[in-house]
Amino acid sequence: MAGTSSRLSLVRTGGARESSDRDMKTCFRVCRFIMEAGVKLGMRSVPVATACVLYHRFCERVDIRAYEPFLVAMSCIYLAGKVEEQHLRTRDIINVSHRYFHGGSAPLECDQEFWDLRDSVVQCELLILRQLDFHVSFEHPHKYLLHYVLSVRSLVNRHAWTRCPVAETAWALLRDCYHGDMCLRHSPRHMAVSALYLALHSYGLELPRGDKEWWQVLCADMKRAHIDAVISDLLQLYDLEAKCV
């Protein structure tokens, strides 16, 4: 895939050690693949997020350059479907992945190449489970963001809220965070608050101030430094996106 043979196998790759910047670009592209494949597979937001976290966790434990990253991504999608109880057929994952890299192509035939690829996905799934010590359930910020949006909506002028898609923007920002390993470095609550803070700020919406800031009321251990750190990391991902085009 991506300039290589359409047939993937779980093999170690040679060559010189790539730079950290190149690794970050690869990670970004792989997570974008997971998200786009997830849309085509009809996956919900949380299973897609779980697939991304599985990939980031796996990269923490191994030298990802020793493996075919898109095969690992396919296995993460397959495993995430099981974890989040949205089971996906390996055939569908393989065909969606094949079309991602070979636009307009017909589905793969059930020949030896297909079965070899299917076996590679399953073997890689087992490898991921072993590397993560079977710890594959994660807490995501999505449920917190939903709660925070409902809490904040009552504090904003109704007409202003209707005019500005704050909830949709915050959700999109949260999704973008998974292109990098922010989910490993920031707590789910902090990510949710920061995404909502940035969405409100983007539309110039201000909330009434009391003894505490609204984000301190929603999340007791939240500090402005946490918001700044999350937003800074997200902006770096957007800069990286421009380099990946």
From TrEMBL:
<feature type="domain" description="Cyclin-like">
    <location>
        <begin position="32"/>
        <end position="130"/>
    </location>
</feature>
<dbReference type="InterPro" id="IPR048055">
    <property type="entry name" value="Cyclin-Q_first_cyclin_box"/>
</dbReference>
<keyword id="KW-0195">Cyclin</keyword>
<dbReference type="InterPro" id="IPR006671">
    <property type="entry name" value="Cyclin_N"/>
</dbReference>
<comment type="similarity">
    <text>Belongs to the cyclin family. Cyclin-like FAM58 subfamily.</text>
</comment>
<dbReference type="GO" id="GO:0016538">
    <property type="term" value="F:cyclin-dependent protein serine/threonine kinase regulator activity"/>
</dbReference>
<dbReference type="InterPro" id="IPR043198">
    <property type="entry name" value="Cyclin/Ssn8"/>
</dbReference>
<protein>
    <recommendedName>
        <fullName>Cyclin-Q</fullName>
    </recommendedName>
</protein>
<feature type="domain" description="Cyclin-like">
    <location>
        <begin position="150"/>
        <end position="236"/>
    </location>
</feature>
<dbReference type="Pfam" id="PF00134">
    <property type="entry name" value="Cyclin_N"/>
</dbReference>
<comment type="function">
    <text>May be an activating cyclin for the cyclin-associated kinase CDK10.</text>
</comment>
<dbReference type="InterPro" id="IPR013763">
    <property type="entry name" value="Cyclin-like_dom"/>
</dbReference>
<dbReference type="InterPro" id="IPR048053">
    <property type="entry name" value="Cyclin-Q_second_cyclin_box"/>
</dbReference>
<dbReference type="GO" id="GO:0006357">
    <property type="term" value="P:regulation of transcription by RNA polymerase II"/>
</dbReference>
<dbReference type="InterPro" id="IPR036915">
    <property type="entry name" value="Cyclin-like_sf"/>
</dbReference>
